[in-house]
Design goal:
By secondary structure, the chain is of the alpha+beta class. The chain has two helices and eight strands. The longest helix has 11 residues.
């Protein structure tokens, strides 16, 4: 079962300038700051105590230069990605195997209109 909206991606030109704005100006806290390999840095910030966070994403690293200032990729959270994968597959939903990265394990699910969500645990 999905338990919350985890992150919303904000594509930016300069992650460090954005980090300073959200943390130093708005008072957010850094939740995660880790390397993601070729795609660069996973920088997650949120207001203290909030369940949902922003991922300040390097637009160039994600090939999303055209989406700077216009982004909203949604990441959902579940208790067990592997169990969710099995449940979806059993329902006939075409879903790739979960992927494991330094920052966590996730799978991608695409709705009937082509919107893709990342679901992590």
């Amino acid at each position: 079962m999905i338990t919350k909206v985890n992150t919303v991606a904000l594509y930016v030109n300069d992650q460090e300038a954005s980090r300073k704005f959200y943390v130093d100006v708005l008072g957010f806290e850094v939740r995660t700051d880790a390397q993601m390999g070729e795609m660069g840095r996973w920088l997650e910030v949120a207001p203290p105590g909030a369940q949902t966070a922003f991922v300040i994403s390097d637009a160039k690293g994600f090939g999303k230069q055209d989406r700077v200032g216009d982004s909203a990729d949604i990441t959902l959270t579940c208790d067990d990605v592997y169990a969710l994968h099995q449940s979806l597959a059993a329902q006939g939903i075409s879903v790739p195997e979960p992927e494991k990265q330094d920052w966590g394990t996730f799978l991608r699910v695409t709705d009937p209109d082509g919107h893709t969500f990342v679901i992590s645990s």
